[in-house]
Structure formats: C-alpha cells, structure tokens
Amino acid sequence: MSKKRCNGEGTINKRKDGRWECSIMFGFQKDGRRRRKSFYGRTRKEALDKMHDFKQKLEAGLITLDERPLVQPDILFSQWADTWYEGHKDSISKTTQQSYKYTLATLKEMIGDRPVNTIKAMDIEDLLRDLRKEGKSDSYVAKARGMLYQIMNKAEANELIRRNPVACAEKMRANKPMEAKEAFTAEEVKKLMQELPRDKYGDSIRLMLGTGIRMQELLALEPRLIEKDGSVIHIRQAVKTVSGKVEIGPTKSRDSLRDVPIPEGLRPMVVSLRNTEDTYIFQSPNKEQPFDPKHYRDKFKQYVSAVKGVRVLTPHSCRHTYVSQLQALGVDLATIQSMVGHADLDMTQHYLHVQNPVKQKAVQAFDRAFLGNKAGSSQIPVGP
User: Which helix (H) or strand (E) holds 21?
Assistant: First the structure.
C-alpha cells in the first residue's frame, strides 16, 4: 500500500501483516543523521495515538530524544504548591486569591518539606484530622482538601506522582449538621417593607428583600445599570475588598450575571435610587469610589434594629429570605435560581429555559404577598 502523510509530518501505511505503521522523523543523531521512529497499531487510530503520545511527552520534556524517561527530582510540596498557585491564580478573583494564600500557607507549613511523590492517602487523612483538632471549621477543612486535590491532581498530570493521593483519602465528616441559614419571617418582611424609612438606606434594604440581590451587587450598582422606569436592574459587577481596599470587580460567578425584574411596588423606590449624579448609587465620600461594605453593614444594623418586632440579621439574610419566601409562595426552584443567579452548576441546565414571563409571575406573587400591590398601587408610604 502506498504511504500517506500522517498528522505529524510523518507517513502512515498498512503493513502486509494487517497492522498500521506511522513513522515520523525527529531530531538528529550525533553523526548528523535524522532520528526516525515508527509506531504500530491494530488500527490506524491506535498507531496515530501512540505517535501523538510520544510527541507530547517529548515536547513536555518527560522523555529524552532516545526515549529514556527523565528522572524527576524530589520536588518538595511547598515548591510544587507555589508552582500550582502561580499557574492557577489568574483564573480566580483577587478576593479568592487572598483566601487561597491563607490556606496554601497553612498547607505548606504542615507538609511543605516533604517530596510530592512521598505523600500518601493516609498522610492526607492525618493532615485533615490535625486541622480539625486545631479547631478549624468544617468548611475550612473541606476547602483545604479541595486545594490539596487540585495541587496533587496537577502533579499527577505532570507525571510527578503516579496517582493523586487525595482522591483515595477518606473525606472528613462534618462535626455537626449544617445549620439552616437565617432568614426573616413573612411577618418581619411585612414590617420592614412598611416601617423602614423612605430614604436611600431604607429603600436599599427593601430592594434586597424584594429581589434577593447580594449586598456586594447593590453597592456596585450604577445608574446606567437600572432601567429608567425601575422595572429591571442589570447585575454586571460587584464590590470586592482586596487587602483592605474596596474596588469594583466581577460578580461572584458567571451565573450571577443576570437581569433582575423588580416588583411593581418597589419600582418608585428603584427610580429614586437611580436619580443620582454620582458614579455609584452608594458612593464613598472619596469620589468615584464604591461604598465600603463594612459601613453598609453598620447602617443595615442601625435601620433594622429600629423596627420593633424584627430580628437584627445580616444583609445577606435578605437573600436567604427572598429565596425562602418565593418557595413558600409556590415559585419553582428553577425559576428562583435563575432570578437570584445561584452558581449551582448541577442546576444550571434546569433553569436556562426559564423565560421572562415566568419571572414576572414570580415577582408579581412577591408583590401581592408583601407590598399589597393588587391593582398596581403600592401600599408602602411614598413620603420621606
């Protein structure tokens, strides 16, 4: 059979014995002659796959030109962890980078001087138990395990280890059942809607209760991101605190980029919030800078505590409240997740189909339940 070019500057042909042969030339020998290598397979694909595998290992420096495996040095965990982090940090936000650095420092302190290829599954289990004994929370232990998995997975991919030991290690069970997230009751929501002052802070709390937007998204709002009639808010950014400095950054996840429909009873307030000449709805005394989340939490506590019969929770409790109240009103979970921009990858495919009319029905249900807006007229006081 005539020889044909294969994908890799070589030739491929079917031999008389039925096998396929793919031959390539690479490099030069000491005498100046070209190096040539052949790969065999029962099928054309098998021969090509062997050739591609060889080329990848050669380009990655995992084998020499004469095909001897390179001897990998005993790379210490601390060295490899830093290498992994440098390659990974550009794919995460600055705030997440700060969190990663803290966890990474802890892991390096505990196992940093051990070669990566000597770490076993039982070592991972011992480390996680030690973190628990030191009083670390269940979420922190889970975060440490996840980071270890990524670090060792990259080591396996680069053939520094034969198998990821974290994948074989037993997961740590939580010390205690997960506590339910705090949320305002239906009666508390009604009190807040009715009795909060009609000013920027009072209206912003109503807005979080009536839309489920995050405080970080609220503080990053610009007038341009709000429709003139107050019917929709476009979530495109969020505030981040990096090394003590407040700045504008991306939303928590890609799913958080969304258009939030506003209940009709809240639209006059949203229009009022929009009417500002500042860059941001909530702006720092330092011009062109967003408001500090710490200061907003203080204001939130001050305003909520002034309403009798309402517990003082956190701004994020407004988000939990919105989800729980919509569920109580019979709105399906897929619609709720679409509206609040929940980054649950397992559910993403289920709520991508949710259309605007379905969302409008959901906000209308909230409108009727908490704003008394049965005929398009809000029952919330309109005066300051």
Answer: strand 20-28
